[in-house]
Amino acid sequence: MRYLLSEYVNPWVCGRIAFRPAVADPAKPFQRLSDWRARSGAFVVMWLSVPYLGVSGVVDDLLSNSSYNLAAGAFYTIAVVSAYWVVAQPLPQDKAYQVRSSLQRAGLSFVVTIALGLAVRTEVFTVPGIGWLLAIWSVIFALSMMWHCLRWVFGASDAHPLLGPIVTTMTALTALAIDQILDTGGDKRPANLQTLIDMGALASVCLLAAIEFFYISYKLGKEPSSLPLRDPLSVHTPRRPTHLGYGLPHPPERPTHRHRHSPPVHVGPDAPMNKLAIFGAAGVIICWPASLVLGIWALRQIARTGERGRWLAILAVASSAATMLTICMATAYVK
Q1: Domain range holding 273?
Q2: Torsions phi, psi of 296, nearest 5?
Q3: Which residues cross the membrane (predicted)?
Q4: Final residue of a domain: which of 180, 214, 248?
Q5: For the whole model, what pTM was predicted?
């Protein structure tokens, strides 16, 4: 699709062209809830903070928090969507296109964020005339980038619906950790008010993400998978001829005996979703150590039963490991 030059000159429209997912639908139930939560949360933060920070201080605080969210979200989107792309192969052509678009969107936003940070440090925007115009254009473009990327989670839900809640929760946790690490003590708001704002925002994001995750998991559990599954018992079973010379029938093959306590094997597109994989991925939102255990347990169970959800269990393990690494790095930095 071709765009006019005037659309690229307009910074808000240019940001929408670059960062709004093609299949974004603001009429979806959870998108409406997310918009309501974000707008009402921003209003409450401004109303509570203006008496202590002033209008310019509140705007700077919101922009800095948005930049933390953007950087963390781009990083986790690249990690989680890349893991999904590797695990869920082969993907249909349309789904592979959406995965690539999500990765490109997240990578571009990460690069633009770093470039804007370097431009501010090198004082490019302080040049009279062209520098001021460039600064105004860049600020509006950055706001458009933050709005469209964070609102639709960089298009991670286009790759798979369950990736959106996972990336959202990991982004919120990491952004809060970064904000605490980089806190210079210049915040004039009372400590109890700051705690209320931080914990209220984190709790609302995680609660909405958990509701969306379990709702989508319930819906997907009722739908057959479009990806073919192999029977784990027939992978290494050689095919023998039915007759062995002179028209004599071959002796019948001995049936494969299972252990009496082994679970039944579910194969084919109608195989159910493994429950441990679902709870393991949800554990990243609630308790990441439990997510790590459940993810590993789910992988072992899926290998025996042939159920769906292997990629979800791998994402649970990878997300838990990333969360643990982030906490360790934050702890080491603070010390």
Answers
A1: 224-230+265-335
A2: -65, -40
A3: 36-55, 67-87, 102-120, 132-154, 160-178, 199-218, 276-299, 311-334
A4: 214
A5: 0.67
* Structural tokens at position 171: 């982004």
The closest of 130, 138, 151 to 112, measured between CA atoms, is 138
Residues 56 and 162 in one domain: yes
Pull the structure tokens for residue 232. 């784990």
Q: How many structural domains does the chain have?
A: 2
Q: Which amino acid is at 2?
A: R
Phi, psi of 249 (to 5 degrees): -70, 145
Dihedrals phi, psi of 107, to nearest 5 degrees: -65, -40
**205 and 275 assigned to the same domain:** no
- Check whether residue 38 and residue 130 sit in a common domain: yes
- The model's pLDDT over 25-49, given as tens digits with 9 standing for 90+, comes to 877 878 888 888 888 888 888 888 8
Chain Cα centroid distance, residue 150: 10
| H-state helical runs in 88-129 | 93-121
Six token digits for residue 96:
């592979």
Instruction: Supply the mean pLDDT for the chain.
Output: 77
Question: What's 215-269 look like in SS3?
Answer: HHHHHHHCCCCCCCCCCCCCCCCCCCCCECCCCCECCCCCCCCCCCCCCCCCCCC
Strand, coil or helix: 249: strand
Tokens linked to 264: 């039944």
